[in-house]
Amino acid sequence: MAKLSQDELLAQFETLTLIELSEFVKAFEEKFDVKAAAPVAIAGGPVGPAVEAAEEQDEFDVVLTGAGEKKIQVIKVVRELTSLGLKEAKDLVDGAPKPVLEKVAKEAAEKAAESLKAAGASVEVK
Q1: In the 3-class helix/strand/coil scheme, how is the chain assigned residue by residue?
Q2: Which tens digit of pLDDT belongs to each residue from 24-58?
Q3: d(CA 17, CA 121)
Q4: What is the phi/psi pair of residue 99, to 5°?
Q5: pLDDT in tens, 59-77
């Protein structure tokens, strides 16, 4: 069998389907007892769009984690923030931890969290 050059090997791989190529990689790993691992960035930390998305989060969730001692005040604030009825707001407060607002702007999330904390609730902004 003649030895193939790197370019000839690449030309052969271009003709394979993804399934055939995946099967080849598995057979190669078994034959030579190696693992074909994806390259890993070293010492730079994460890069690319994932970092930008984490830094530029523009939608936040306000999660009620506890009603505190002034449950009635918290229910009133929840009603103001969500336009829920009395029963729905009470069920939300009783069922804590539950999201009060989802996918809102940072300013709105902070304002809602402050209102709930002022009423005696414990709140998380995610």
Answers
A1: CCCCCHHHHHHHHHCCCHHHHHHHHHHHHHHHCCCCCCCCCCCCCCCCHHHHHHHCCCCEEEEEEECCCCHHHHHHHHHHHHCCCHHHHHHHHHCCCEEEEEEECHHHHHHHHHHHHHCCCEEEEC
A2: 888 888 888 887 665 555 555 555 555 555 556 77
A3: 57
A4: -75, 135
A5: 888 888 888 888 888 888 8
| Whole-number Cα distances in Å, 123 to 82, 103, 118, 120, 126 | 15, 15, 10, 9, 10
Residues 6 or more apart whose Cβ sits within 8 Å of residue 112: 62, 81, 100, 101, 104, 123
Angle between helix 71-82 and 106-118 (nearest 10)? 160
Count the Cβ atoms, other than its own, within 10 Å of residue 121. 25
Are 100 and 115 a contacting pair, CB within 8 Å? no
